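Lab notes, practical 5.
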Amino acid sequence: MGDPRDEEFQHKDGVVPPSIYQIPYDSEEFDDDGKPRRTGTVWTASAHIITAIIGSGVLSLAWATAQLGWLGGIATLLIFSGIMLYTSNLLADSYRTPDPITGKRNYSYMDEVQANLGRFSCIACGILQYANLTGFVVGYTITAPKSMVAVQKSNCFHKKGHAASCRFSNNPYMIGFGICEIFLSQIPNFHELTWLSTIAAIMSFAYSSIGVGLALERLISGKGGKTSLTGVEIGVGISAAEKTWRMLRAIGDIAFAYGFSQILVDIQDTLKSRPAENKVMKKANAISMLTTTVFYMMCGCLGYAAFGNDAPGNMLTGFGFYEPFWLIDLANIFIVIHIVGAYQVLAQPVYKMIESFAIKKWPNSFFVKAEYPIKIGSKTVLSLNSLRLVGRSIFVIFVTIVSMAMPFFNDVIAFLGALGFWPLAVYFPIQMHIAQHKIKRWTFKWCMLQLLNFLCLVVSLAAAAASIQGISESLRTAKLFQFKE
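Output from the prediction step:
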């Protein structure tokens, strides 16, 4: 059956059936449901996804591979790549309901869950989704200043010598990062964010490539570390219990490194209505997942080969702050630029949720709806809105204060990620697919889907337990508002 949004599609009597597509399809300004016309393509969607997936966490994959060894590390990377591609495609099919091509649009992840699974599941999804997204932007606010401080330390060591005491506070950099994000937060939506996502995606490739290049140089020069099929060995300095905790955290790190389900629906909502959004989104998922997996394998495997079982949590720090100091500085600058863009990609669904609620609550409010265009000549370069200016600025300030107050928050993020991974990336997509396609209980496909559900739940619980152990260790030494590198 064809797509009723295509002009050549007609029923046998030559008439398009009554549906939500009664708005003229050739409208230059409006989409098939009366909303502003979308312009997104497979390439803009891929840029958004890659920006969201390939975070600075890619540099920790050498450490994760070291905990699991060659067998476990490579297998885990490939398995989770396949799982995330499959469940992301299921989520893409739920964008329109009840039919994935001719159904009514769902504008957010919560809308999808509401349409397929009901109100209770929708509320649970919303709590998990927005807690995760907020947690991740807090994590980015902590991570970006670390890279800024790394540049300052590198130059300090270069000027004063390797024995110099080069320790600096992260707080001034966090404040500067927050101010930058307040300005960028005024970008209205995903449609206007494509240029920033593209730059951020290029930056992620750039710093990953520097890490891979330095690892190759280390291997070629014969300085590679000791590796094994099973990873870090139990013995001096590591007990069986510590090995187990590290393995669980490594599996969790790899699983979460592939997660982008929280923003997938918002990205899909930017795509043109023709061809069908789910088909375009599946192509974007495949491009992004293939690209990501190649980079993850290169960083994880080459990093492990370069450092062996002593691989650091951040691959770049393993090369020291010394020489080639300019190249390490460049990589850290690329990380900061990438995080600046990734912050906005992950924050957009939060902004959208808050502003949609305000518009529904106060539809006639001048504060909520009035737009103030800023023009250069006759061209509008930006449109300011009082709600966006105030609401988004408050959100960024809140995130910055939390980041400064809790230097151990990255361990909390690991816990939030563990709690959110299974329901958002696996459970809801699978349950919506079952509901949408009316798959009967105890059929072969139903059993396989539930088996996948169960296995990913086990991974989430194990990673949550490991992250709690990490939080307990951090609480012993961390002090509020004292964050030095």
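Observations recorded by the TA: The chain is about 65% helix and 5% strand. The longest helix spans residues 119-160.
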